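Q: Start with the shorter request: fold the first protein.
A: Done. Sequence, then structure:
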Amino acid sequence: MNSTPHHKKKPWYARRSAGQPPLGLIYLLLLAPVCFLIIFNYIPAISAFYHAFTQWDPGKPAIWIGLGNFLDLYHDPIFLKSLQNLLKLGTFIFFVNLTIPFIVAEMIYHLKSERWSYAARVALVLPMIVPGVVIYMIWQYIYSDAGILTALLESLGLYDWIYGWLSHPKTALMAVACVGFPFAYGFNVLIYYAGLTNIPQSILEAAEVDGLSAPGRIFYIHIPLILSQFKLLVVITMIGIVNGFESIYILTRDGGPGYETMVPGLYMYLNGFVFERMGYAAAIGLLMLIFLLTFTILINRLVRTEDYEPGT
């Protein structure tokens, strides 16, 4: 009596759905990016966490000192000054980064012509392709003694208003803060605009029938329904404020005059690659990480957003 031969069950790495490669090949291809992620992201982060508790200079063995670096930071006048500068600079940047792009997004959203709306969005995106270093160098020229700002004030006869904008203690920090004027950043505007266009038309029509004015629609409908976008921009902006120091480094090189434009990110960089105090720099980086992590968790807890579903 003939018996039907039994086919052996394929191992898991050889199984595949119709039209798909074997699972083994998929996992093998995923192995490379995972290895790169571990080597270039996770291992440096773990190393920085460990070395934050050590006295580590390049070319010398790391010496465990526990909380020594953090105690030194607590009594470090330059680091404390950098925190004050960060608070002043961050408050200004935080305000303009979240308000002005929202106003611009509202203006684009209320344009009647789709063609003009598209042109406005393209105009906002185009500056994003310019490297940030180029923008900072242009602003460095604007603030120079022979720059556009000085020439403009001279043409208006306002000679008393002319300063060494990046070298005077009274104007250096504000000059750095004003880089990027008029602050209509394309990314922020597009995030807000995407949230506005996602508002259901039925809600807007109901508000219009109820006689809600244009400012009322902005405050009572637009803002509550784009809290998800607002929360995203709050977190991204805070990360940029705390971690960013490129503009200050290019404009002032060392956080000068004195330490009037010093921020923790720049102080971390200088300690690590100029003063060769890598352990001290790692401690500053760890404090920045803890602050950003705490801030992100608090924002997610305090700003509650719910996705709108028709009929709710």
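Q: Next, the second protein, separately.
A: Sequence, then structure:
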Amino acid sequence: MCSPLPNTPTILEQIVARKRVEVAKAKEATPLTMLQQRVEGMPRPRNFFAAVVKRNRGRWSRLIAEIKRKSPSAGEIRADFDIELIARQYEDAGAAAISCLTDEHHFGGHLGYIQTIRKTVDLPVLRKDFIVDEYQVWESRAAGADAVLLIAEVLTEGELLDLMILSHRLNLTTLVEVHDVDNLLKVKQHIGFPHPGYALLGINNRNLKTMQTDLNHTFRLLDMVEDTNIVVSESGITSAEDLAKLRRQEVYIALVGEHLMKQDDPGEALRELLDRTPPQR
């Protein structure tokens, strides 16, 4: 197999480039002022942070269950894509919150899925997408999201801070995701800014450049994290033992998607993860 050319864009770079074009088109179709007007009359978002960070309420794992149709690494994950059914299954099985992919081209998502989920269940919803512009934060709030994903690998430090400030202004929880050590060092001082009850630190076990997954990546980065209560381990979690390993390192929040979506019954798969995972004593 031939190696990629040195100047060939990575999948992440391709996604971000397409996203910037999509945002420019969205601004033309729906000006920012229209989004702001929509947000003015909306009720306060559900508290995503409180749903997953339950300090001093036991030692159980809390799962953010993800809904996605496909991905660049796995291709089509689920053909029978009934969002309402999956959301109900997740809620009944004990999910703490739901993550929803809204990128259309690479993940088969749609922004409208967020409102569908909110009308179906009472769980808070994370908009998982590649946010590169403040417009998308307003867009997320207007669509009914309770939290947004901010990926450190695609943002400068200044851009990240601006997006965190705006998210807090709109009462949205931020899940600030890192993979590289350099990016963790860049963002960790800002987690909890401008308010400690609105920011989570996600450690993505999937390398977004190579798409390879390794659960041990979370453990390698933990020594540089002061508060593991707000750490979310993302990707590569497929068993109760994986959750037990995380708890032994005092990581109690996990985001699980592909494993659940591949099962005949995603809710039952989630229930098995939780039911077979006794609390740490």
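Q: Describe the second briefly.
A: The mean pLDDT is 90. The chain has one domain: 11-275.
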